[in-house]
Every structure is written in C-alpha cells, then in structure tokens.
Amino acid sequence: MTDVSQRIKNLNREQRNAVNSILEGWDGRQDEFILPIVDGPPGTGKTTVGVLAASQHV
User: Which InterPro entries does UniProt cross-reference here (predicted)?
Assistant: First the structure.
C-alpha cells in the first residue's frame, strides 16, 4: 500500500467519502471533470482531503 493510500485509509468516514467523490469526478464522461465542493469549518481537513485526492490521482 502506498503512503497516500495509507493516509486516505486513516481519514474519517466523511473525509474518505470526499476523497472518493473527488477521484470519481476525474473519471467523468467525455473527459470532463466534476468538481465536488468540500465545505467545513477551519481545521476539519479540507486541504488534506484535496491534497490526498490529487496525490492519489497522479
């Protein structure tokens, strides 16, 4: 398991769901990307979710 995969596995359920939604957006039809909105108060992991999703994609 890669370091990124392990870090995703260690996220809470809501964060993992957000990462999965972002990754599914990269597989949109006709090469489109559907950008999910990750919303929440400061300190809830929004940046971490985005960084891990992008890292997992590349």
Answer: P-loop_NTPase (IPR027417)
Cα–Cα distance for residue pair 47/17, rounded to 1 Å: 14
d(CA 29, CA 14) in angstroms, rounded, equals 25
Q: How far apart (Å, rounded) are the C-alpha atoms in residues 7 and 31?
A: 28
Q: How far is CA 5 from the centre of its chain?
A: 11
Domain ranges of the chain: 3-57
Cβ–Cβ < 8 Å for 53, 19: yes
The CA distance from 43 to 47, in Å, is: 9
Q: Does residue 30 surpass a pLDDT of 90?
A: no
pTM score, whole prediction: 0.77
